[in-house]
Amino acid sequence: MNGTMMNQSPAETALSRALIRWSLTKATPMAETPTSWIFQVEQNGRNHAVLKILKPGKGDGEQRGGELMQWYAGEGAATVFDRHGGTLFMEWLDGIPLGEAVRQGRDDEATIALATVVTHLHRPRPDAPKDLLPLRTHFDPLFNTNIRNWPYTARDLFARAAGVALTLFDRPSPQIPLHGDLHHDNIISSPRGWLAIDPRALLGDPVYEVANALNNPVGADDLVKDPRRIAAMSELLSLRLGFPRKRILGWAAAHAALSACWALEDEQPIAAQLAMLPLLLTAYDQA
């Protein structure tokens, strides 16, 4: 190893190696997440692409996600051109997030786009990744939480949502690879249509795939909390995907409670989840 590389940060070292490995030029930092560094790079001096470099020690979920993205082979998701160690070499998506379409007042159109992405992602393919996280394990923070961590006035909501989740797990369902975090701002427009990014890479009930979307997008709170939107969106998703509407609403409520448990673990506020839970549970009861 030369002296220059020894003085580099982990990100710089991984970037240098990736640029050489894939003959890339002109790396521009785009974002840093809790688990990765994102760079825009140029290929052959003209085509833009992305390098997603995982931070050391942040690997499991992201590694699973990279494997799942590669398995999608560009159908309904950004294309992964190649993967080496903790670095993904991927298609550059230069469009807007689907959340932006909703914030611009195109909610029904966005729901149809979401359903189309799910259809592409759920298309049967051979040789699914082996180490996907079971959906039941993903829900451990909900089932293992200490109810005393919840505000006193919200404990009945927590108990009901946990009960709904148990009911859903008790009913047999197909077990398929799931993106697992398919909210509006993880779907980006491109010349190839709307494409998903950043999966959690789970294995479980296909209906869970749309659970997070009913609680989203961020920045459209009045719309998201409108019972008419919950009814219309669940109806449209049911129609487009053939999922039972009651099951869609059940997973949406269960996910809102799970999200609250994650937030409580991180000492974050849970006002948004507490606003959604009674609405989703009521819609579930009435479905």
Describe the structure.
With 287 residues, this protein is of the alpha+beta class. It has two domains: 3-91, Phosphorylase Kinase, domain 1, CATH 3.30.200; 98-286, Aminoglycoside phosphotransferase (APH), C-terminal lobe (Aminoglycoside 3'-phosphotransferase, Chain: A, domain 2, Alpha-Beta Complex). The chain contains twelve helices and ten strands. It has helices at residues 3-6, 10-21, 59-72, 98-103, 107-121, 135-138, 140-143, 155-170, 221-224, 227-241, 245-265, 271-286, and strands at 24-32, 36-43, 47-54, 80-84, 87-91, 133-134, 176-178, 187-190, 193-196, 202-204. Strands 1-2-3-5-4 form a five-stranded antiparallel β-sheet, sandwiched between helices. Strand 2 and strand 3 form a beta hairpin. The longest helix is centred in the last third of the chain and has 21 residues, at 245-265. The model has no long low-confidence stretch (mean pLDDT 94).
CATH architecture call of the largest domain: Alpha-Beta Complex
Determine the CATH topology of the largest domain. Aminoglycoside 3'-phosphotransferase, Chain: A, domain 2
| Category by helix and strand content | alpha+beta
Helix content range of the residues, please? Answer: 40-55%
Radius of gyration: 20 Å
Output the CATH class name of the largest domain. Answer: Alpha Beta
Low-confidence stretches: none
Principal-axis shape equals globular
Mean pLDDT: 94
**DSSP E strands, number:** 10
The protein's oligomeric status is single chain
H/E element sequence: HHEEEHEEHHEHHHEEEEHHHH
Strand arrangement across the biggest beta sheet: 1-2-3-5-4
CATH superfamily of the largest domain: Aminoglycoside phosphotransferase (APH), C-terminal lobe
Give the N-to-C terminal Cα separation. 63 Å
How many domains, in number, for the residues?
2
The helix count comes to 12
| Major sheet | 5 strands, antiparallel
Strand content: 15-25%
